[in-house]
Amino acid sequence: MPAYLVSTVRITDAERFKAYAQAIAGLAEEHGGEYLVRGPVTEVLEGDSPADERVVVLAFPDADAARAYVSSDRYRAGKQHRVGAGEVNLRLIAS
User: Fold this and answer.
1) Strands 86-94 and 34-40
2) Which of 1, 3, 37, 88 can pair with 57 through a Cys bridge, CB separation 3.0 to 4.6 Å?
3) Residue 75 domain flag
4) 88: domain CATH number?
């Protein structure tokens, strides 16, 4: 059953956040992931959302593959570059 990682992201230090992105480049694909959406919110139709919020949606073959991606040593090491460079909320959506 497919599973999805949905992230909302606010970048506060673009240069440092870039190091995070470079550190995990290609990692999702190594775990069977595929980027479906990656970009800024263009319009808020309901509720509140920061003006600079971005959304990332990754599809994985199953929840175990998504969890393996997030718990991998490379992801955890790359995540250190993100500290102080942005706010990320990551959700797993699986049936």
Assistant:
1) unpaired
2) 37
3) yes
4) 3.30.70.100
Q: Does 72 fall in a domain?
A: yes
- Could you say which DSSP state residue 46 is in? S
Residue 56: give the domain boundaries: 3-42+52-94
Q: How many residues does the chain have?
A: 95
Structure tokens at 20: 């995070």
Q: Which of 85, 69, 71, 70 is nearest to 20 (CA)?
A: 85
Look at residue 56 in the predicted model and tell me its pLDDT. 98
| pLDDT tens-place string over residues 16-45 | 999 999 999 999 999 999 999 999 999 999
Q: What is the band of 51 on the pLDDT scale with cuts at 50, 70, 90?
A: confident
